[in-house]
Amino acid sequence: MTIPTPPARFRTPRSIAHWTFGPALALAWAVAILVVCWTPRAVLPVSETSASVPHHDKYIHAGIFGVYALLGTAGRPGVRRFAIILVSGVALAIISELGQELPLVGRDADVYDALADISGLLLGLGISLAAAWFLTQTPREAQVA
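and the corresponding structure tokens:
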């Protein structure tokens, strides 16, 4: 499956920023994810539980990994970049959960958190794929003429 290149009116100029801006932001976001996930529970300013919204931490996990996917595929989405973001996102989900088991961190790894991470990752990739498809469609007026 190939992801078509957007029409010229939607493309940005080919430059270093065009190729590296999205992945660089995704890398910075991944570091932020690890910092927050590996922050000891006693240092966290907020609780991970909420009485008003059940399992709200799962929505947070899905959201941060959805943002990771969107940042990673920004600029020039392609099959190779999608694959890299998918594999690195799954690895990041596993590593972030396993790191919480370290005695220094003192938090608990949760399989359901990792599943929420991967769900958010897939949702973000799906949104990116839909946006790439939408941007490559020719306007109806141009098809008729």
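(Above: one complete record from the training split.) The first helix runs from residue 16 to 37.
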